[in-house]
Structure formats: structure tokens, C-alpha cells
Design goal:
Elements: E1 15-19, H1 25-37, E2 53-57, H2 68-71, E3 73-77, E4 84-88, H3 89-95, H4 97-106, H5 113-119, E5 122-124, E6 138-139
Parallel strand pairs: 1-2, 1-6, 2-5
Antiparallel strand pairs: 3-4
Helix pairs in contact: 1-4, 3-4
Length: 143
């Protein structure tokens, strides 16, 4: 029996749209990361970017469970000495909810050139409208 190995020429990509209103951040991120990687396909190959495009709408309505809005921080470094910055997720979800979801998904993808190619297939919109109607995206049910 032969093992199927996908390559860049045989990968067929679909477009999915996810409505994230009222869903927890981590659960949405983990499902979206799996689709971006291609783990929902029977032709999944770990060393090939065989994932699909994902459009996430209503990212401003994503929720955090528990006390994460007060206790959790997004940290980054500017590159300068003493340049460690942190933003509380309460402020981040109010102002940059798309960045919060983007960073959550990016952390679940491979940390190499393959992961950088996968994250480019993620499109996040704060409101219910998106500009990818021409691709005819299918609705992706997460739960």
C-alpha cells in the first residue's frame, strides 16, 4: 500500500468563513490553526502547506473566559534596551481584537517558513463584512 504525499501542485485550497461572535479566543484560534495547516483534510502532509484560506468576521465580539481580561497580558519587545511592553487583554480586545486573534493563531502554527506561509492565508475582520465574496467562501462550523 502506498502512502499519499501531497505537494504544492496537488493541493486544492478552499475558502472558509468563520463567525467568531461570542466564541472564546483560544477555541477559535485552535480550530482556525488546524484548518490553516490542513489537518482537516485526508491528504494532510506535515511538510507541505496544504491548508485552506480562512476569513474570520466579528473578531471584536470574541470573548475571553474567566479573569483573563484582567490577568492576561500581551507582551512584546521593541528591540531597544528596556523595551519590553505589555498591554492588558481588556484594552487589546477593545482596540485591536484582530491582532489578539492573529497572535493566538500564529503561536499555534509552525515556527518556520511553512508557518509564515500559512499565516498569510488568514484574513481577519472586526465587523460582519468582508471583501472576499468573490472567492465564494463556505461557512465553517466550529462547534
Amino acid at each position: 500500500m502506498k502512502t499519499y504525499m501531497a505537494n504544492a501542485q496537488t493541493v486544492e485550497r478552499k475558502w472558509y468563513v468563520v463567525d467568531a461572535a461570542g466564541l472564546p479566543l483560544g477555541r477559535v484560534a485552535s480550530k482556525v490553526a488546524a484548518v490553516l495547516r490542513g489537518k482537516n483534510k485526508p491528504t494532510y502532509t506535515p511538510n507541505v502547506d496544504c491548508g485552506d484560506f480562512v476569513i474570520v468576521v466579528n473578531s471584536d465580539k470574541i470573548v475571553l473566559t474567566g479573569k483573563k481580561t484582567e490577568d492576561k497580558f500581551y507582551r512584546y519587545h521593541t528591540g531597544y534596551i528596556g523595551g519590553l511592553k505589555e498591554i492588558a487583554y481588556k484594552k487589546m480586545m477593545a482596540e485591536k481584537s484582530d491582532l489578539a486573534l492573529y497572535e493566538a493563531v500564529r503561536g499555534m502554527l509552525p515556527k518556520n517558513s511553512l508557518g509564515r506561509a500559512m499565516i498569510k492565508k488568514l484574513k481577519i475582520f472586526k465587523g460582519p463584512e468582508h471583501n472576499h465574496a468573490a472567492q465564494k467562501p463556505e461557512e465553517l462550523k466550529l462547534f
